[in-house]
């Protein structure tokens, strides 16, 4: 019986009653005994952090805000909206990002970033050896965001020089203007670019047809009234067929092949081609299809086609101007009057609290370590 008593250790922590343990009052008592250290040390650390913050170069932030171009509803979207309940078939278009998101992505593109880097010599300012390093540093110092409620785009730039920060923020808007003028982003801009290319191509063919007609010794008085009327009618009909085919191509960019507008345009194009085929079949007589008539017919066709494309081009330009492609700056970036970083008071408070918690953990750990050494079994386990 005595042997069993000797094997039991009254100081074994696992044999303590359940109600015995570390009380909050014990912890406060331990910390209260070192209250001077708990107050003086964190305050000293915070003071050192506050003084060290003056060694950090100040950073200035400049901000500009602008209203992105407002895109009106395109003709394709208007046609879908006119279908009523059937417009739900175009649900896939709802996932497309808004034009404002597209302008934010443009300002974050490599095209814009490289021009900003070259203009402000950021390779030397950031001490970057490679261009991708300068881009990464620039992305950390530039914040471009889109307001969810007001729809305004803001550009914030951090720099050591307040004037440089303001210039870089304003330059982002200037680069966006340049890029949008070079790219066809909206539906009207795409139509304008398409008809502009077709107009240039038709103009070259018109000049070529005119030169060929003049080289054949064509005299307007030598052409009789009936062949002239037939040639002009054929040229008009062929130009209408070509214009209808071009219009069908543009409509297919925004509508499905099963749309009523597409089917109606295809029917119109088929009717024009049928009339054109009949007219071409009736003019196979060599007596009527003389050389000067065929050349005059080609010339009138290119001339009529040029006029049709000119009208379509002007309409596309008018639609483009209605879309409000002008970027309207609400707030121009100006040099900051006060630094944005470092926040010295916040740094001092953060370091003070961090030092306090580290010191509390250290004091408690040191106390319980000493308590553990006083126990015989713990002393044997620690090898002290």
UniProtKB/TrEMBL annotation:
Entry's InterPro entries? Bact_polysacc_biosynth/exp, LPS_length_determ_N
Alphabetical keyword list = Cell membrane, Coiled coil, Membrane, Transmembrane, Transmembrane helix
* Membrane topology reported for the UniProt record: Multi-pass membrane protein
Q: Is Nucleotide-binding tagged as a keyword?
A: no
Residue ranges annotated for the Polysaccharide chain length determinant N-terminal domain, each copy included: 21-118
Q: What is its main location?
A: membrane
Keyword DNA damage tagged: no
Where would one find coiled-coil regions in this protein? 169-205
Stretches that traverse the bilayer? 37-56, 345-364
Q: From the Swiss-Prot or TrEMBL record, state where the protein is found.
A: Cell membrane
Name it. Answer: Wzz/FepE/Etk N-terminal domain-containing protein
Which organism is the protein's source?
Roseateles koreensis
